[in-house]
Amino acid sequence: MKFDRVKSLDAILATAKKKSLNRSLGAFQLTMLGIGGIIGTGIFVLTSEAAQKAGPGMMLSFILAGFICMCAAICYSELASMVPTAGSAYTYTYAVMGERLAWMVGWALILEYAIGASAVASSWSGYMIGLIENLFHIEISPLYQPLIAITHEPNCAVRLT
């Protein structure tokens, strides 16, 4: 079938030489990019709410998530050393499992980034609304408030408006 074809490593390297991307990010920039990707809704918005409900279990979940992220980083470094071209999980999947799975992985990555960005944008807009309302005493219409907002009511972690 057309979608089951696998691209050989030689073909990937030949394509990379024709259409090469220049490396412009160093180790420090990539580290900062990774830290910026990690800092988001979970750290700024839900940490205090989760700590009140889960207690020390929240720290154990952070440790577990850190271990899993470390394993994923090791897997990516292994794949990057085997297929030394600019690319992502799409390129690695294309080289190993075929075009159909690579296509699905590519769209899963786009969906992942879109959902993550929308969650962070929603939480930051909630922070900005709270800042504007408390600092400048301006009432923001519920029409412009995010659908899910953080509240400090004792029995509710999130408020649906």
Sequence-ordered SSE layout with sheet pairings:
Elements: H1 9-18, H2 27-38, H3 41-44, H4 47-54, H5 57-82, H6 89-96, H7 99-136, E1 148-150, E2 158-160
Helix pairs in contact: 6-7
How would you portray this structure in words?
By secondary structure, the protein is mainly α. Helix content is 66%, strand content 4%. It is built from seven helices and two strands. It has helices spanning 9-18, 27-38, 41-44, 47-54, 57-82, 89-96, 99-136, and strands spanning 148-150, 158-160. The chain has a two-stranded antiparallel ribbon with strand order 1-2. A hairpin with a 7-residue loop joins strand 1 (148-150) and strand 2 (158-160). Helix 6 (89-96) runs antiparallel to helix 7. The N and C termini lie far apart (49 Å). Residues 155-161 have low confidence and may be disordered.
Report the average pLDDT across residues.
75
Main sheet strand line-up: 1-2
Shape: elongated
In quaternary terms, these chains amount to single chain
Radius of gyration: 21 Å
Total beta strand runs: 2
Q: Give the SSE order as H and E letters.
A: HHHHHHHEE
Number of helices: 7
Low-confidence stretches: 155-161
What percentage of the residues does DSSP assign to strands (E)? under 5%
How much helix, percentage-wise, in residues? 55-70%
Largest sheet: 2 strands, antiparallel
Secondary-structure-derived class: mainly alpha
Distance between the termini: 49 Å
Short description:
With 161 residues, this protein is mainly α.
